[in-house]
């Protein structure tokens, strides 16, 4: 037990990087609801998915039974360029809060893509390359996923076509330039390059775009062009599988310093970080081996978990993608722009700040009660390319909007009529 | 000897972080030329320097004899938030070059300031705090130093006033916002807040500013306001002392993997990175204990070392700062904007790319000769906030200019008349 002599940063040796991803579904008694064909309402088969996704990724997507998937050597070699990521003891934050709690964070921002998204991007690009494909298409909003995929494709010599939500394309020129620097083609969405883009532009000439629209365009291009497939950085089972590397490393690092966390906190949107961070801990819970308090944090401006419905919904505006069962506010819901603050000498990504806030709240509760809990949160990335929001905050012109019940009712009205 | 099994990243343990800075001057037989009083032309005394710099830093600046300065515990604790920095084996770059050479880089970009500048910023801010000062003033061009100092001052609760060259203030709004987020006040220079700024604006109403002008403004504010001192991120002896942590860590990491580098490469402008990286290796050379080939790399657009004169010159436009003996193009020389490319999944700072280019050239020579040299270069920082230049390059509108002999002659004409 080294509890009293914990370093600021615990690194695993490269030889200790986990060599298999963990599939939480294998330990779930109630399996996740299947993706549905939006046309028939029936569960999608592997054959229906292979025109959209790489074959190996379809297997990973549909496999609810295999607990571990070996990580191919080529992916492990790429991981070694930026992994293992450190498990950091937040001594400075503890001191500022004057709390008896011990706060740790798993920091995924130390790579050029600036976030954990690279963990899945390299895996998806690798399988596309293995299948002999020419390239991949995707969408990106904030740009983290697009950046990560561009890096991975550059490394493997794959073509990369990114549809970037038009408002981000214009407001985040630096994200766009990182992607271009890695050789990706970046198209503002909606565009005139796809049927769905033309249709949306005809109906809404001044639209600044949305993630749902960009997904539709990326899927259309992948399906229509031989040698291309579509890849996605969040939401899917395969992504959570790859991101389990975060939690597996965190758990191994905790074992090394003889600590078992009491509370695990992650920000949640598409779920790639949260699902990856908690995977092995949740596995222990499911197998009855240990108990952890797990907290998912989301912005009040986009309250999917806290005020949404657990229902099947569309994933894209064009309604050509599989239907997924999830906490949803309806595919027509558009959240207000949101933002957040900083800590520990790191300028966090806005979404990571939600997790930091929850960790601070828990640490302050410990201060009240005198408990010395061990609190882990996921610091998923840096906010270096989100500084427009920081500028607005510093200038006092940042606005935020928490949706009313009426706003939510409008979104729910668009849910597809599928038996929940 | 682990030469055949070198990890991608070699980290020292936190307990192995060097606990003293190394003062290369102690091993120099010919000591560096002293700073001169611009009024009298005589070497500056400690008494003359203390109105400008903190007392402890004046001592460090003038000490040519003490080989090691212990690093205060508070600074070591801060270092542990982001140090030790990794010594990385550039396996991917080696593979792409198909070279027998082994390439390593010491990566200093993994902190929010994005560069090695934080190593000296925290030291200078610490001594200001120890002296009971209210705050510090400085100038910043590209913004790395200003960002680093803002971080350090926020950590210690010191006031921080940054004069940012006006053209950078406008072209690098994100750098500016990082500084503001850390609570610094950022003023575009020249400004109406100082006498020297007013004078320059009256003479050149449309000027976009220069580093020399920003220095003059920062020094003026420091000298006129009780409780303030001026700090500088490069050029000075004290800065090279603090930056020796880079080289000391690199050397310790090499010892750990049983490697002795043949070639050490650093980009050179103000010298803070180069001086820090090579310090302990150069010390061994001076003491006759080992030999290394050391290469300083600079852009052809600003050829101080390769085409400049070794002479006393002004450090600022206002001519109120000490005169320093250095390779100079004359204080009136204004370089063309310059830029550079990338490697190893990292988007490097433009200046770091100069070192990368030199490392590639040396590795390709090894490919020709079949030699298996060990090549180290300093990767001083990331280019996340320099993406305007990448955008111009990607758009094919980047221009560069290599000065003619006539350009240089104009600069040299402004050198002060001091016995060289």
CATH architecture designation of the largest domain in chain A = 3-Layer(aba) Sandwich
> In which order are the strands of the major sheet of chain A placed?
1-4-5-14-10-11
Most extensive chain-chain interface:
A-B, 36 and 36 residues
Low-confidence runs of chain A:
338-342
3D architecture notes:
Two copies of one chain form a homodimer. Chain A folds into two domains: 17-73 and 116-230, 3-Layer(aba) Sandwich (Rossmann fold); 84-113 and 243-412, Rossmann fold (3-Layer(aba) Sandwich). In chain A, the strands form four sheets. A six-stranded mixed β-sheet of chain A has the order 1-4-5-14-10-11, with helices on both faces. A four-stranded parallel β-sheet of chain A has the order 8-7-6-9, sandwiched between helices. A two-stranded antiparallel sheet of chain A has the order 2-3. The longest helix of chain A is centred in the middle third of the chain and has 21 residues, at 237-257. With 420 residues, chain A is an alpha/beta fold. The first copy, chain A, is globular. In chain A, helix 6 (144-156) runs parallel beside helix 8 and helix 11 (237-257) packs across helix 12. The first copy, chain A, contains 16 helices and 14 strands. In chain A, helix 6 (144-156) links the parallel strand 6 and strand 7. The A-B interface holds A 7-9, 11, 13-14, 77, 80-82, 91-92, 110-112, 114, 151, 155, 173-174, 177-178, 180-181, 342, 344-347, 382, 384-385, 387, 390-391, 394 and B 7-9, 11, 13-14, 77, 80-82, 91-92, 110-112, 114, 151, 155, 173-174, 177-178, 180-181, 342, 344-347, 382, 384-385, 387, 390-391, 394.
